[in-house]
Design a protein that fits this description.
The chain has 206 residues and is of the alpha+beta class. The protein has one domain. It is 30% helix and 19% strand. The chain contains seven helices and eight strands. A six-stranded antiparallel β-sheet has the order 2-8-7-5-3-4. Strands 1-6 form a two-stranded parallel ribbon. Helix 1 packs antiparallel against helix 4 and helix 1 packs antiparallel against helix 7. The longest helix is centred in the first third of the chain and has 15 residues.
Length: 206
Amino acid sequence: MRHAHCVKVDWSDNDDSVVWTSLFYWLGGADIWQSIISGISSNCIPEGSIVYALLVPFYSGESREMRKDPLVTASRLANGWKSLARSRIRAIFSRGYLAQLSREQIPEIYQKYYGWMYGHHAFIVAREPLPEWKQELRSGRFFGWRIRMKLLERIYFVLFNHYDHGFEIIGRSISPDPLLEVARKVSRDYNLPLEVQESGNPFGDP
């Protein structure tokens, strides 16, 4: 379900070829978050997929930790800054680190870092290598990722967290059922109420 305060897209609200699915929850603990993330990684991302990521640090210390992390050391800063001092000074404005991951590594990223609580970690889940993946993830600066229909036609879907409120999956010809099953399992495991909407806004706005 498309809503405000999210990402930019280049297709019409009336285009029903795009499936936009949201899983949102409120006031949950870290264990619930990890259950959701692990469920999405194993249930929603096809085995053997190539996962491209833009990982956004929250502050300079986290940026330094990411820089030393084997998961991201093969990548460069997405903003292209090569000066260590300069990147430290401007870490709060950093557009993050680009990395290629497996679906099994996604829960680890959310366990180790906290930048996602104040922004979006963005993922492209692809069937095959995508040469221009860095350019696709760089689109947009401080005011939201821009997702293009041309990209969706070549991949499974895009995935991102909406701060610490939930996750969104956007793609063409994908089923919302795997994400719904994740929500049902978390609801059962933690005795949480579950509300399913066919359309609308997860924030409750008109």
